[in-house]
Amino acid sequence: MNLTSLTLLPAMFGMVTAIWWSLPYLSRPTFPFGVQVPADRIGEAPIGRTRKTFARNVIVFGLVAAAASIPLSLRTDPRTVISLGVTGLVLADFAAYSFAGRQIRVAKQAGDWYGGARQGVTADLSFRTDPLRVNWRGLIPAAAILTATIIVGVVRSDTLPATLPGLEGLDLDGGPRVPTGFWFAANPVIAQAAVTLGTALVLAAILRARPEIDAAKPAATARRYRTYLRGLANLGFLTAACANLTLAGIALRLWEILPASPLGTIAIATPILAAAAAVVRFELRIGAGGHRLPDEPSEAEERTGLVQRDDDRHWHLGGFVYINRDDPAFFVHQRAGGSQWTLNLGHPAGWISVAALILVALAAVAAALADTLGILDLPNTHGF
């Protein structure tokens, strides 16, 4: 096992553990482990105990996975160990999260937490009559970086060597070199285009999605949600630009314009790490749906006498999956985690989207199998 594998093993397991450990704290307080509870019940003892148990389990799973992977990586391919280990750790953490959600549901039913509450829903039509205006010029930096990378690539294309680096190791110069081909050489640019277009499409869908309005405080939550959407759009623009900048650095290294060195690798990774820091800051200051934003003085006493309607029956797998055939919404805010979204799998468009993803996955598996059997000759991207 080389230094790269020794560094990557704890980093990957640590990242997975940190993400799952933080998930309950990033979620809105009224959705512990994907279960809806009234605002006056978020301090119930079963919720606190379940959070502590889940956090302990996630840390133990991470330590066990890391401890088991190190000796295994000495006997076999470290990349296989990392892939299988991370997959197993994610599944274990997901199982713990789902079990925690079931415990909250049991406590909720046993304590009759919605007993005597007037349940309701609220719609704010101003999101349709006066939709949030987003300055789409925020995508210009990402598009400019993409354009600049394309120009550099076109200029460099005639002088590319016969083989390109495999981009392994801390200096991105290890591994067997790969024969120069269009798809391998253009991979970073294709990824940049996907990031730029994907950001625009996702933000457009989010801005048109149904807003999350609390029936207990509709005016306050509507204002916070507008602030949240505006911040989310700006965060999306920043993340796209940072991702494209990192991909531009990878392209320069792949085309051997940027020399191989650990410092160069750090410089390449810095933009995407800065974007990750911005995401964490956004979640801690604004939070999903803007729930961390304080009330304005005029909103402090707002009370309608209602609590948001309990619709747990439509949410599955710990608040990750939403299935409601009676809901016309296609894109909805996910319960689990922070600023995450999911498809309504009860909507016809949701079925079509999932079917399309399954077909793409099956086609990729079939193509890889055909390549292995010699039926097809796919371009070798060396796992890029």
Secondary-structure map with pairings?
Elements: H1 3-26, H2 45-75, H3 78-111, E1 119-120, H4 126-129, H5 140-157, E2 163-164, E3 178-179, H6 182-208, H7 218-254, H8 262-285, E4 307-308, E5 315-316, E6 321-322, E7 331-333, E8 341-343, H9 348-372
Parallel strand pairs: 1-4
Antiparallel strand pairs: 2-3, 5-6, 7-8
What key attributes describe this structure?
globular, 2 domains, mainly alpha, 58% helix, two-stranded antiparallel sheet
User: Can you tell me the overall shape?
Assistant: globular
Number of strands: 8
Contiguous uncertain segments of 5+ residues: none
Strand order of the largest sheet: 1-4
* Secondary structure tally, helices: 9
- The radius of gyration is 24 Å
Report the average pLDDT across residues: 89
Fraction of residues in β-strands: under 5%
User: Separation of termini?
Assistant: 21 Å
Structurally, how many domains make up the residues? 2
Largest sheet: 2 strands, parallel
Helix-strand makeup class: mainly alpha
Topology order in helix (H) and strand (E) letters? HHHEHHEEHHHEEEEEH
Helix content: 55-70%
How would you describe this protein?
It is globular and about 75 Å long. The chain has helices at 3-26, 45-75, 78-111, 126-129, 140-157, 182-208, 218-254, 262-285, 348-372, and strands spanning 119-120, 163-164, 178-179, 307-308, 315-316, 321-322, 331-333, 341-343. The protein folds into 2 domains: 1-114, no CATH class; 119-309, no CATH class. The strands form 4 sheets. A two-stranded parallel sheet has the order 1-4. Strands 2-3 form a two-stranded antiparallel ribbon. A two-stranded antiparallel ribbon has the order 5-6. The protein has 384 residues and is mostly helical. The protein is 58% helix and 5% strand. The chain starts with a helix and ends in a 12-residue tail after the last helix. The mean pLDDT is 89. The longest helix has 37 residues, at 218-254.
